[in-house]
Design goal:
The complex is a heterotrimer. By secondary structure, chain B is an all-alpha fold. In chain B, about 65% of the residues lie in helices and about 0% in strands. By secondary structure, chain C is α+β, with helices and mostly antiparallel strands. Classes of the chains: A alpha/beta, B mainly alpha, C alpha+beta. Chains in contact: A-B, A-C, B-C.
Chain lengths: ~180, ~160, ~650
């Protein structure tokens, strides 16, 4: 009897270890990347801003452009190779009728315009965030990032990294469909 | 045309991957000017407390990444505006989440950071007291004769050890 | 052809390690003497096989054989030869080969040096070591083969070793650290063998003590070297970052430190036996956990290896089998152990247990601090970071009782200590340490802070009590001069070890509280005054190294109008990887370091320069070195060389236990 209790007590390290092992195994099995962060702005409206249009310095936009319909906000730059990789897919999504706003982040205007002209422009509106002001307010920590924004201008999801068919089908499309 | 562009892209990708993979060991040095020592102190504390979200595991003081530079500049601006350390940390957390601060907030999970070691110390002390008490009762339970014998044995033993 | 021989030799070692496990255990089971004795032979053969493999890889690095992909990615023909050799363990595959090679080295050392160990126990110990080696061989061969070829198209030159690693630090830090990590496998094997045998006695503690001490000594040196390396190489003046990878090395160290203390109690007094076994299992388990954390990519770290989920899963499965199995065995077998020794609350036993409790509490702090972010994210609470502020706060709290009890702990007698006898010594120690810490701060500190006072006081509390204890012990029976020569190795080791900690506490306190850091803009010819030192920026010149180019800024430092140092701070660009590196200029001193790092050149031609004044930072590494010296003295104790005596000892103990 006493011995049984003792064994139970001595089993404690084993049990703790197994619990720990489960927590170590899940991220490996799920293949989650610890360097990818969830956005702190989920459920919050797009922060206020005033930014120029990338093609036209005289044209200015503010947060109101994100109201009225659900859309994607894609943060990109010409210095970002992954942005190049996902550009084709963005074009495809735009062709399917998705409303995509582009935000050129900490970049060179000339280069960005050339990029859009050469690779085709998937964006309905192209914001030019040269100093990264809106990027900072959005908590952008690298490009590309893609925000899913509902018709009230509320951020519902952020995807960090390459946007491709697989990512869209596995995760983003269902969130997009559910948004209002 | 496309193939050449692709080639450039892949070369670019390769270069950027290499620069990403080998984290740079460059000191991040700025030459900010402050109004007073207090501000400078706050700024230094902040840059050590704030984590660069882009980097491997570095605070924004040590990192030379572009984003860390931006955050340092922002922190500098806010310090110059006279904001307190807490206000600036809150500002960063509102944008980048709790990940950005090296001092985690209290959540149902982080409470164990403090509770865990505390409970262990308390548990350990309890076991120690219990053990000592058990030893005492055992000792008392021994017959006087045995106790004497034990005492002499122990005496020899300790002598042996001291040698 | 050579790489294939290396590979084959590795596979051979793998097979031999399996034989080293299976055949001797079969012998123990059936009583087949030949099989029992074969353990030693297999160990030797396994060592030879893996040594051949290791030497071949080193040789291939030396001759720049870029047809081997590991070498092509981690070396370059312009690399100096000594870095080419240390590049063997510069990345994942080779460092694992080093790991298995060192495991085989420890195994062969156990096989050849434990002459008084009964053959059956020896067979069990070697069998466990063989099993551990087998797992790692499989891991190397299946997931991380360093001999893989790039054929048929091999590159003309290699992609070079990461410039951060092109340093003396890499030459010795990993081998030392791994010697420590892997060394705990011996304590682990001894513990498992004892559990299998059902014989946990003082003899067991006595056998495993010198091995544990050796591993702990290596680990101590390894960690200190790592810290020192980070300090001078990374260019931002820090010496410990609480990074997951650093924590991964600190956790086995904490467990190992608890273990060497509790082994002492188990050996001398026969108590805490099941606790000691658990610690022995934990120390190595934490080494394995460290390997997992570093190589699986589940955590974000500054110095992790290239991560790969398959490798992670492999190590995790291995971890679960080894640690899970060991802990299950422990639960079943340790329940049979009965402690016979008695002690009171005021006794050395209690204080050593308290030391263990505090050390393990510290271990829990580090473990939770390292792994909780992972759990936090997984249970959907979001990403968090746990870093310096948290750890520093917790360790500041923990070190206070730890140092206080450590100081007076050695004054306590075994079993029972009349507290009234200690009032006078404690008062003397208190008074002396208060005075000396105040004098120390008065001389060396620019201003007083509470934290600095606390830290320095704790340091002196330990130093004074160590001195006082030596005085008491040596004047116990003889005059001081004669008495002090009669103190045994283990007594000196204890005193030195504690002194090392005191030195380290003082170093950390002074560095943390009184370091000064300044980022300044300096043009050539300008100077800046900083903490009684005048830094003159003399010139900037070009730099041409074997495999890098760059610029070097020359500063002369004046103190009281006298030139005390010329410092050269470099900015290097390594040509192959195009990677910029800061090589800080450090003027090291016993009571302070001056540290200059060059930043970027500013638009107006001036340079951004960072200057540090770091008081007593050398003490942070001096402390661990003293601790390591203590470990070395302990291992050299005659007690661990006496022949045959432990055998009779152990029989007595077993009899006692079964009674």
């Amino acid at each position: 009897m006493l011995n049984k209790r003792r064994i139970l007590m001595l089993l404690v390290p084993f049990v703790i270890f197994i619990i720990g092992a489960v927590f170590l195994a899940t991220p490996l099995l799920k293949g989650s990347d610890p360097s990818k962060l969830e956005s702190a702005l989920i459920g919050q409206p797009i922060p206020q801003f005033t930014l120029q249009d990338i093609f036209d310095q005289d044209k200015q936009y503010n947060a109101d452009i994100f109201k009225g319909q659900k859309m994607l906000l894609n943060v990109w730059a010409t210095w970002c190779p992954t942005c190049y990789a996902e550009h084709t897919y963005l074009n495809k999504l735009a062709n399917q009728g998705l409303y995509i706003v582009g935000m050129n982040y900490k970049d060179n205007r000339k280069k960005a315009i050339r990029w859009l002209n050469e690779l085709h422009n998937p964006y309905q509106i192209s914001l030019f965030d040269e100093s990264g002001l809106l990027g900072l307010d959005l908590g952008v920590y690298g490009a590309p990032e893609t925000f899913l924004i509902d018709s009230h201008g509320i951020i519902r999801y952020r995807h960090v990294g390459d946007l491709n068919e697989q990512v869209w089908n596995d995760k983003l499309s269902s969130i997009y469909e559910e948004m209002q | 045309m496309i193939t050449i562009r692709h080639m450039f892209f892949y070369i670019g990708l390769l270069i950027s991957l290499i620069t990403l993979a080998t984290h740079s060991a460059q000191a991040a040095i700025d030459t900010f000017e402050f109004d007073n020592v207090q501000q400078e102190q706050t700024f230094h504390e902040l840059t050590k407390l704030l984590r660069c979200p882009k980097c491997q595991n570095q605070n924004i003081a040590d990192s030379n990444a572009e984003l860390a530079k931006d955050l340092r500049n922002k922190a500098y601006q806010l310090v110059k505006q006279g904001q307190s350390k807490e206000q600036i940390v809150d500002y960063m957390v509102a944008r980048f989440g709790n990940f950005v601060r090296y001092d985690p907030p209290l959540t149902p999970a982080t409470i164990f950071l403090w509770l865990g070691p505390l409970l262990f110390v308390i548990g350990g002390l309890l076991i120690l007291f219990k053990q000592v008490k058990k030893n005492k009762t055992k000792q008392a339970a021994l017959a006087p004769q045995e106790q004497q014998k034990l005492a002499s044995l122990l005496k020899q033993h300790t002598k042996g050890i001291e040698k | 052809m050579l790489p294939e021989i290396g590979q084959f030799s590795l596979i051979l070692a793998c097979i031999l390690s399996l034989l080293q496990t299976v055949y001797p255990l079969y012998g123990v089971r059936t009583g087949h003497q030949g099989a029992i004795r074969s353990a030693k032979m297999f160990t030797v053969l396994q060592f030879i096989a893996v040594a051949i493999s290791f030497v071949i890889l080193a040789y291939l690095f030396f001759i720049n054989d870029f047809s081997v992909s590991y070498i092509a990615t981690n070396s370059n023909s312009a690399l100096p030869w000594y870095y080419r050799l240390s590049a063997v363990w510069g990345a994942h595959e080779g460092s694992l080969l080093l790991w298995v090679f060192l495991l085989a080295t420890w195994s062969i050392a156990v096989a050849l040096m434990s002459k008084n160990l009964p053959v059956e126990s020896m067979a069990r110990v070697l069998a466990v070591l063989g099993l551990l080696a087998f797992g790692f061989y499989l891991f190397v061969i299946l997931t991380s083969n360093p001999f893989e070829r790039t054929l048929p198209y091999f590159p003309i030159d290699g992609r070079d070793l990461n410039p951060l690693l092109q340093d003396f630090g890499l030459v010795i830090h990993p081998p030392m650290l791994y010697m420590g990590y892997v060394g705990f496998s011996v304590a682990f094997a001894f513990a498992i063998a004892a559990l299998l045998e059902g014989r946990l006695d003082s003899a067991w503690a006595k056998w495993s003590r010198p091995w544990t001490m050796a591993a702990w000594t290596f680990l101590t040196v390894g960690i200190a070297l790592g810290s020192w390396w980070a300090y001078y190489e990374l260019g931002w003046g820090g010496w410990w970052f609480w990074d997951p990878v650093e924590n991964a090395s600190f956790m086995p160290w904490l467990a190992g430190t608890a273990l060497i203390h509790s082994l002492a109690v188990s050996e001398k007094r026969g108590v805490f036996k099941s606790w000691t076994v658990l610690l022995a299992l934990s120390a190595f388990s934490l080494s394995l956990l460290g390997t997992f954390l570093v190589r699986s990519g589940v955590l974000v770290s500054v110095h992790a290896f290239a991560s790969d989920p398959t490798r992670g899963l492999f190590i995790l499965s291995f971890l679960i089998l080894v640690i899970g199995g060991a802990l299950l065995l422990y639960a079943v077998q340790a329940s049979k152990v009965k402690s016979r020794g008695r002690y009171e609350l005021a006794s050395r036993e209690s204080l050593l247990l308290l030391n263990n409790i505090l050390l393990i509490a510290a271990l829990i702090v580090v473990l939770l601090g390292t792994l909780l972010p992972l759990v936090h994210k997984e249970i959907g609470l979001g990403s968090i970071s746990i870093g310096e502020p948290f750890f520093n706060r917790m360790f500041t709290i923990l070190i206070v009782p730890f140092a206080l009890f450590l100081g007076i702990g050695s004054l306590f007698r075994w079993k029972r200590q009349k507290l009234s006898e200690l009032v006078k010594p404690i008062l003397i120690i208190l008074l002396l340490s208060l005075c000396s810490s105040l004098v120390f701060l008065f001389v060396f500190a620019p201003a007083l802070t509470w934290l600095a006072m606390l830290g320095v006081f704790l340091g002196f509390w330990i130093i004074v009590s160590v001195g006082y204890e030596i005085y008491l012990r040596s004047t116990h029976r003889y005059s001081f001069i004669i008495g002090i020569t009669k103190l045994g190795n283990s007594h000196w080791a204890m005193s030195l070890g504690h002194l090392g900690l005191a030195v380290m506490i003082i170093g950390i306190t002074m560095t943390q509280n009184y370091s000064i850091e300044k980022d300044v803009k300096l043009a050539v010819g300008e100077h800046i005054r900083f903490e009684h030192y005048d830094f003159h920026f003399d010139q900037i010149s070009a730099l041409n190294g074997q495999n890098y180019v760059g610029t070097v800024g020359t500063f002369s430092v004046l103190h009281n109008q006298q030139k005390i140092a010329v410092m050269n701070a470099e900015k290097r660009i390594y040509t192959v990887q195009r990677m910029p590196m800061t090589e800080a200029a450090i003027d090291a001193g016993f009571i302070r370091d001056l540290y200059i790092a060059m930043g970027e050149q500013l638009p107006d031609g001036a340079w951004a320069v960072r200057i540090y004044y770091k008081p007593f930072i050398r003490w942070i590494w001096l402390g661990p070195l003293i601790m390591a010296l203590a470990g070395f003295i302990m291992i050299c104790d005659k007690r661990y060389r006496t022949k045959k005596q432990p055998l009779t000892d152990s029989k007595n103990e077993t009899g006692e236990q079964n009674a």
